[in-house]
Amino acid sequence: MADDSDGTRRGRWNALIGFSLSRLWSRATRTRSGRIAATTAAVALTITLLIVLTGIALALADGGVVSENDATAELEPKGSESVSAVDGVEGPRLGETNERAATISDEDGVDHASPVLVEPVRLENGDGDPQTILMVGVVPDGEPRTVAGLPTDGLEAGDSHYDNGSYTGAPQEEILLSTAAADRLEAADGDELSVAGGEAALPSDMDPAVTVSGVETAGSDGENEAPIALVHLSELQHVSGASDDELADSVLVWGDADAAETAGETAYPNAEIDSPDGVALGSLFDDGLALATGVLALVASIAICASFVATTMGMTVDEDRQTLAVLESVGFPTLSRLVVVALSTLATTAVGALIGVGLGMGAIHVVNAAASATIAPGAVAVVHPLFIPYGIGVALLAGLVAVPYPLAVASRTSVLEEVSQ
Description:
Helices cover about 50% and strands about 15% of the residues. It is of the alpha+beta class and about 425 residues long.
């Protein structure tokens, strides 16, 4: 008997779900498509905005393709967050990096260590307009290593201009461009590029031209590629004024994991030591600005989506009182009618969420293209596979928050009142 009861109950629920979806489809395509379309569009636009803002927050926390490397360990100053990228204030940096990286490289179990300095620099190719790209300074050792998504063996090994800290050695004057940087500068292998702009002008004792040593696709998947370039560390330090204290944003260490971490802790006892592992949503919680951006986007999306869904679906139910009265007259109990309204609301929200996720993914690429062409030297937002369930989940949560209002409207429907009208 219990099995029969469970089967009957399951059959009723399946029938209610099927009826709700078919009724919603009929209303959306034949009878009253206006409000359904408006609700779907509102949810889609809200989720699109959520995905874009979350992508920007994740890019703030992760650093984008510039942070992509194959190092065993990465040393960063404590408190190095994304504020400097937004407010123009330079964040904390490590000092004496050239000397200490050389010391780390000499430790047993360590294959190589290189400081990494990132600076936006304006370059020009011949008579072309100056373009801003991100220059990444490294010390290559001739081995196939990856920094900022680019191979370091595309540059000549060593860093001759450093010359034991005097910065008087012969500069190697090489630059390895990403495909995006080469396209922006309209440059190819072997071209000479000049540094432009007063703030980025090379010192008078250095040749203001560098030669393109190669063009490579930045990043493991080639998506969201930023206009970046690899150069020798000391030359970028000299250009940017970071040579006085041998400053760098981080130090990358290759080799045995334990040896790399031990050598890093010895050289920089107060630095943070991380193991680079690509883009992770967890990085949002390590950056205050990124976390605030993501949380504000989440709260605003739920509030906007829920209020619009509640209003439009409530108006839809109010206009549909006669249909609900008919359902009551043919034997649909109050609970069943409310289930139909709730399922219709959530189904409409889910459709809008699916559209919004797709639009959000595409919008991130559009935002990156627009930013790279105007104000930013690289991608300002990233795409993550978990954005799909995240966007759908947020929309359904907003739908659950909105459901009580259309249910309240539906519960006040009376057969006698509707017949009398």
